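Sample intake sheet
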Amino acid sequence: VARFLGRALPRLFEGEGGLTFEMNTFKDQAPLQSGFRQILELDARSWIVLFASQGQAHNAILLPMLKACTAALPDVTLVIRPHPYEWPPLVRFMNPGVHVSTALTARQAIQAADVLVTHSSFMAVEAALLCCPVILASPDPVPNLIPLLTEGLARWVCTREELQRALEDLLGGRDGPLRAAQERFREAHAKIPGVESAADVIADLASR
């Protein structure tokens, strides 16, 4: 796994919105949060749950679960971020009433969100580096992202009840251990500059 991640991550990140691992200073996070909400015509107090889609068949199960869970929470808005290979108008057609947005870069969208949810998108790794809470939703842990789970950088859920509980915890501020793990991850990456070395950080996690 470690060797695969070391080779594949740079290419995979380029494929998902041109993501890189440049260190984030967080200085632009507040303007991004307010600006993204203006683009989506949301109240400034709205919480944003960003779903990083990959256009997989799993979406037929995950999105109805996620829609129901976010609808049950006050002031929470679900926003779907289509994969570059997906056609946004079709994603909107398949998900009526849900915000679908390709506004901002993938990194900026993560910074503007309060929680990122995905099945297997490598945006989860970027979110962990940006200290954005991550939920991995899948019937079984996705092998390429297991290092995030073993290091406490994300939460894995496989049922609607677990997803609801995870959202309530992360949006309710009960995310101390996860954020602490993400801060350590970010600090470890900061010591190794460069895009390729970011893959080395993930590969190191996988080899522990």
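Comment: Residues 1-27 have pLDDT under 50 and may be disordered. The first strand starts at residue 47 and ends at 52.
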